[in-house]
Amino acid sequence: MPAERGRPQDTSGVHPPLEAVGAGPAGIVTAATAVVSGLEHGGGGTAALPGVLADVPVAVLVIDRGAGTVTYANTAAVEMAGNVGLPVDIDGWGAAAGLTDLGGRPLAASSGPLSLVAQGQPVAGEAVMLTPGRSSEAGRAAEDDGRSDRVLWVTGFPLSGPGSAQQLSLVVLLEVEAPDDELDAEGYLQALRDRAVIATDMTFTITDPRQPDDPLIWVNPSFTRLTGYEYAEAVGRNCRFLQGPATAPEAVDTIRAALAGERPVSVTLLNYRKDGTAFWNQLSISPVFDGEGRLVSFVGVQTDVTERVRVEREREAAFAAERTAREEAELARATAEQSRADAEHARAEAERAQGRLALMAEATSTLIATLDLTDLLERLAGLCVPLLADWAFITVVDDTGAVQQTAFRHRDGREADLRLLSARHVQQLPEGSPTRRSIATSRAVLVADAGEQLAGIFASDAARDAFARLGAASVLALPMVARRRTRAAILLTRRDADRPFTREDVDLAEDLARRAALAMDNVRLYQQEQTVADTLQRSLLPELPDIAGLESAAHYVSASTAADVGGDFYDLLELPDGAVGMVVGDVVGHDVAAAAAMGHLRGLIRACVWEAPDPDPGAVLARVDRLVQGLRVASMATLVYVRAVPPTAAGAPWRLHVANAGHPPLLLREPGGAIRVLSEVSGMLVGVGDAARETVVLDVPSGTTLLAYTDGLIERPGTDLDAGISELVGRLAAAPVPAGPRELCDVAVAGPLDGRDDVALIAVRFG
């Protein structure tokens, strides 16, 4: 966006002052931009000023040094000084504008910036005050609009080259926002200088013809706003990078010839921004010579005139169209009528195409949003009615062709007739019905005159009467084919004989049927996988046995999104010697493969526990570890094994032998409700190496509940396991004292679960 007048934009770090590229004092930037006004090198007068400077937001003056008068003022300068007749002497123009120094004193006739420029001296940049009240006409304007004193940045230099007959100088007065009053004098002037460089909306560039390929050595912030190229992307390159495939070669040749001849040039050509968009660029380039007449740089000013070019071209096109219309009035009217007809037809086609696309998009998003077959069929019927048909039937068959399920929808309801037709006709589907023919041939079946052609296919009068009440002028049956198998068919029916199914309707319905068939088959595969997963889960997670003296409960949640199984498991069994074994484990992974590994591992553990030469849990886990590594049953797993020995006498405690292989610690809930964390039991994971694991022996009184779990119960994003264990302990401690294993399992899983890991939990209360 253009910079607001008098409010410079911050460009620190993007566009350095001109000294950074070795082009002289900072004020020469503004002075150099005036050179591109198009005044011919060596003279030329005000008539050579291009139109681009007439309405720019900076005031521009041309001074005749010989006469000491202002001979030209652009629109901004006229607004500043009022309607002062030209030519006028320099001091007179300054008084009319109300120019003073920063202290409010009138400008000295010999040392003021305008006088210095009139004497042929360049002014690299000087701050002055614009005080409208110092001239009667400007003062009245100031009173009208409430303006106060403003700060102007004055820059000027001679325009005439060596040997020029005219002695002209150019002055630019740029309004800038006053800096902070707390700055010292030098800082105040430097702030004004910096703001003057960036305040103007005009796009300026400077190139160095003394370097190879005449590269850019400076661009102002407006260049970046116009082209999109940052300072660092532009400097060092020839500005031809703004050209593109549609840039006119003639315009480029004109610029190249002017540069070679060291002449100013103005041309309008098509350029391209960094993002590839084109714009019409009114470009003015002027050479800059040093005091000895040597070419030192080219200065360019660019203006986006895209809108002007567009308006001019539209005006030319309008004139041409008007001439054509006058010459060929009848032909034009005929062409217009045909164009309107074509436009209406195209619009209708576009609306139909848009409707088809919208239907397909809605169908895709609607059908894939459910994994329940009944819900999917209901959604499909809702998509068909009333957009494609007045009523519809969807029939699902099994591999033998028998009807498994139906769904239906009528635009007016009519549930009773649809249900009767489903029970008396669709469930039996005679061979001549369009639905049966469509399923058998896997092709669409269109019946144009349904009333007469379908009268004989009904097996009962009730079905025929229901069909007649529903109404059917034309019927379209479409197979639902997915993965080379026809699993269902859609029957679409229209009641209006004046609105039969067209080829376009058939194509659209076939597309919908294909998408629906694929979604339905995905549901079938998902349900099959769920059945397999459920069977696998039931086989891998045992039913807890009834053991005298014990009360037990378990809970399992899978983290797998593909199947409801995972690698966590639990087991409880009564051993041959009368002891009770309890195992909880966690195999790495959360899918069917992890579940399969878990099944192997659970079988190994059962075998090792049942016929263990040494029943010590530490020895049992060591044997399991050796078998896992030798047989490659699972990559890694954590286990905890508890061997519970019943009391030898009434009132005696249970004796627990516990060994842990990298598993979260067990929890003991004492009869009074206190929770004890068995953190002293630890050991290496199964599968990482042959390591001995210590067995800890505990005596627990009757009524104590032992809880074993996997880490999915205590994991929380961003927290460690200790925090999760603490939360679990808090929930269990808050449970009522009479709570049994089932209630404690429910309390344990009542907290927030991460959902990214399986959860297995078993609770055993010793009686």
Automatic annotation (TrEMBL):
Segments of this protein annotated with the region Disordered: 1-21
Residues in the signal sequence: none
Domain of life, source organism: Bacteria
InterPro entries to which the protein is assigned, alphabetical: Bact_Sigma-Reg, GAF, GAF-like_dom_sf, PAC, PAS, PAS-assoc_C, PAS-like_dom_sf, PPM-type-like_dom_sf
GO MF, one annotated term: phosphatase activity
Coiled coil: 326-363
Membrane-spanning residues: none
Coiled coil in keyword set: yes
Annotated Pfam families: GAF_3, PAS_8, PAS_9, SpoIIE
Keywords for this protein: Coiled coil, Hydrolase
SMART domains: GAF, PAC, PAS, PP2C_SIG
Record keyword Transport present: no
All residue ranges annotated as the PAS domain in the record: 216-262
Domain PAC: 263-317
PANTHER family per record: STAGE II SPORULATION PROTEIN E, STAGE II SPORULATION PROTEIN E-RELATED
Name of protein: SpoIIE family protein phosphatase
Taxonomic classification: Bacteria, Bacillati, Actinomycetota, Actinomycetes, Geodermatophilales
